[in-house]
Amino acid sequence: MAQKIVVLPGDGIGPEVTASAVEVMKRLAPFEFAEFPFGAAAIACCGVPLTTEALAECRLADAVFAGAVGTATHQTAPGEPTAGSGLLRLRTELQLYANIRPVRAWPALQGLTPLRAELVAGADLVIVRQLTGGLYSGAAGRSATAAYDTCTYTVAEVNSIARVAFGLASAAGRRGRVTSVDKANVLETSRLWRDTVSMMGQQEFPDVELEHMLVDSAALALVSDPRHFDVLVTENMFGDILSDEAAAITGSLGMLPSASFGDGSCALFEPVHGSAPDIAGAGIANPCGAILSAALLLRRLLGRDREAEAVEIAVEGALNRGIRTPDLGGTATTAEVTRAVLNGLD
Description:
The protein is an alpha/beta fold and about 350 residues long. It has helices at about 15-30, 40-45, 50-60, 85-95, 115-120, 155-170, 190-205, 215-225, 235-245, 245-250, 290-300, 305-320, 335-345, and strands spanning about 5-10, 30-35, 65, 100-105, 125-130, 140, 145-150, 175-180, 210-215, 230-235, 255-260, 265-270.
């Protein structure tokens, strides 16, 4: 039986790059696809950013592939659903607590990074972000004169995400080092985080090297010594910020893939970049982040390492031949980059 993938194209350039990723997946495996509106597009046609029908199909699917959400023109009044709230609901309902964002320095793009080439050459790291706790999920409120957001973590939540990070660091091809990022000099949640990660490392992964780093120090180290890192693990907001900062290593947010997992069978795959409404419809969006997210799907969901590696090699081949979208200093269209990757798979 063909594995089922629910596609949520989203807004802005989301449908364009998602279509590229679907083309690549169709080339490599006999998937069954089901597509539903998502984000502002779903609000426009259905009144909500994620319909009950779409969520039900996501629960039954082997994977969900999503595009970015949000548009420049979509505005919501207080209390109304936002485009992004559909993504938050999807993560919560599917209990996708672990977000994995691989970051690597592509040799062909070293001239695009704002960092010195000798600093980023060979950089290859993974950021593991706790996705369902912290400020983004805690109690929040606002009055005429004040507002608050609550950051809460439990030992169980930290244990779950730490286990993912230690497991990745132990895997073949990685260097056996975990850097746990927190703000333990200020925040009580970070002190709980640090104590819990330390205990996990001592008890279950004694062969993995563990270091703790304050988030401000980690932010500096990412751009001054990115090769220091192997696997970083951190809470929701810190992970959101650091993973976007890490785009400086690759030269563009358009190159970053991601995958989100929980304890269930379904997982979510999506590029890290936003919906970029300013270039939507122009045909110049960079599809590489989405295509590399498809490679993550092939590897992590299906165990198809050979096919995933073929996709990554095809992307690198296109970059090496100078077939790049404008964000990478090129003149190629989305379709031309996609075609180059597909040709590399032949």
